[in-house]
Amino acid sequence: MKLRLAEYPFIVLLMAIAALAMLVPAIYAFTLGDFAGARAFFYSAILFTLLSILLAIATQHYRPASIARSQLIALLAAFSVLPLMLAVPFYEALGTVSFRDAWFEMVSSFTTTGATLFDNPRSLTRPLHLWRALVGWMGGLLIWVAAASILAPMNLGGFEVRATATAGQGANDFRQIARIADPSERLTRFAAKLVPLYTALTLLLWLGLTMLGEVPFVALSHAMSVMATSGISPVGGLFYSGAGVFGEMLIFVFMLFALSRLTFGRGLMGEDRKGVFYDPEFRLGMTLVVILPALLFLRHWIGATEASTGIGDVQSGLRALWGSIFTVMSFLTTTGFESASWLGAANWSGLPTPGLFLVGLSMIGGGVATTAGGVKLLRVYALYKHSERELERLVHPNSVGGAGADARRIRKQGAYIAWIFFMLFSMSIAAVMVLLSLTGVQFETAMVLAVAALSTTGPLADVGAEAPISYAGLTAFAKYVLAAAMVVGRLEALAIIALLNPEFWRR
User: Distance (Å, rounded) from C-alpha 154 to C-alpha 167?
Assistant: First the structure.
């Protein structure tokens, strides 16, 4: 069965999966009595399933010159073109928005950004909320599988920091090694291992949130959004969640999977020498989660002391501390869920929490080969180790670095490529800001929207600026710019540049 699936182009398989997924909201809409919505999703499922079958018949046994290159192109098409198909049932079921807005919503969901044009969750029916969460969930699953099977062998997506080969040039050795290393076989092999794990974790979180008092539908939507780090919510976030603080604690545990690939993929990518607690990404992420909330709590405590407002209220202080811990973890993993206690910290001290702080966390992002976006913790770690080494050389010019070949590679070649990516990321932010400014968007708003799109943290628009930013108020051109930025942020600039490399096409 795995070998038969490998005979078809990757994009055709993704189309077939997306078409079959339309049956889920169709069935749910039918059970709710929303027959118009059920027909929209059911007819779309039939249409695109037949289209996928016809394309599969036409392209069966097609063998491209470079399978790895074709899969990378298919990955780019999946995040940019496939949302056109995903938007059809959304557009037909809603009937009150343009197809462009429906496409923007699906790009945002599939890239796990979670930016929405609907400020009021009641504007959408439950089946449409389910479709948004399901599309985001599938986008997160695609990243899990593609990172291990497509990006890792090509030294892209963050793997270039540890790799000895040049970024984008890892795929040219496939024909010279064992047959199991064929890109198509890698894709099916990793999918067979990661899909059940991803699904089981989602169901476990859904069950846990339901047992804690959350409405089953809302619990399922939040569970899928946490695993995909999309931040999509049918009720407008965790402030209206019925699971309370214990639900946030459970979600916090599952957000750990976005800090390091070793939390779920140990042994799958040849990185089983040490446990997750020795992984620099996980340790750096947990260090930020401990230190930054402590500094925030200290700031609020000083504010409460100066204002003499509730400093003796231990419960309010603990609630403020938990709100900081959860929100820092949420935006570091680019999930974007805001703790229900986050605003309580400001009320306790009388000091507002700076939105620029959350913008910086979203830029850092989570772990390599996870559903999180941003610059990624491994690149930040490489830059940190390089800076530390340079400072040591200033004090002791003849010092010996040590720590093994892997550590030396990270702080030298890894830091070099990490710095290049950081510059590309910064230039991308500047380019998006310039394009948004052409539509009349103000500087601060453009900066927050650019970071939100490129780091795939759509909810950042609500808390990153002085006042919440509405995506619905943007012009058509601004929506196109942000949609393109979401695709670039999800696939990363290095992968797109690798596609533009002439040498990559000659091989």
Answer: 7
| Distances 331 to 321, 355, 378, 407 between C-alpha atoms, Å | 16, 11, 17, 28
What's the pLDDT band for 273 if we cut at 50, 70, 90? low
Cα angle, residue 154 at apex, residues 148 and 155 outer, rounded to 5°: 85
Spatial distance between the Cα atoms of 144 and 148, rounded to a whole number of angstroms:
7
Tokens representing 397? 């010019």
Average pLDDT in the chain: 86
Radius of gyration of the chain (CA): 23
| CA 478 – CA 487 distance, rounded (Å) | 14
Candidates 485, 79, 458, 451; CA nearest to 231 is 458
Residues 6+ apart with CB under 8 A from 500: none
Residue that has been written with the tokens 């750990």 in this structure: 256
Element (H, E) at 372: none
Distance separating alpha carbons of residues 184 and 196, to the nearest angstrom: 19
> Where does 355-457 have alpha helices with state H?
355-364, 377-395, 404-409, 415-437, 443-454
* HEC letters along 55-90: HHHHHCCCCCCCHHHHHHHHHHHHHHCHHHHHHHHH
pLDDT at 175: 40
Residues comprising the chain, all counted: 507
**3-class secondary structure for 95-163?**
CCCCHHHHHHHHHHHHCCCCCCCCCCHHHCCHHHHHHHHHHHHHHHHHHHHHHHHHHCCCCCCCHHHCC
Residues 6+ apart with CB under 8 A from 469: 445, 448, 449, 461, 462
Question: Is residue 391 over pLDDT 60?
Answer: yes
Say if pTM beats, i.e. exceeds, 0.90: yes
Taking the alpha carbons of 39, 42, 44, 47 in that order, is the dihedral positive or negative? negative
Please report where in the chains the tokens 């339901």 appear, as a residue.
210
φ/ψ (deg, to 5) at 230: -95, -25
CA distances from 254 to 270, 279, 326, 333, 337 (A): 23, 18, 12, 11, 13
Rounded (10°) angle between helices 377-395 and 415-437:
120
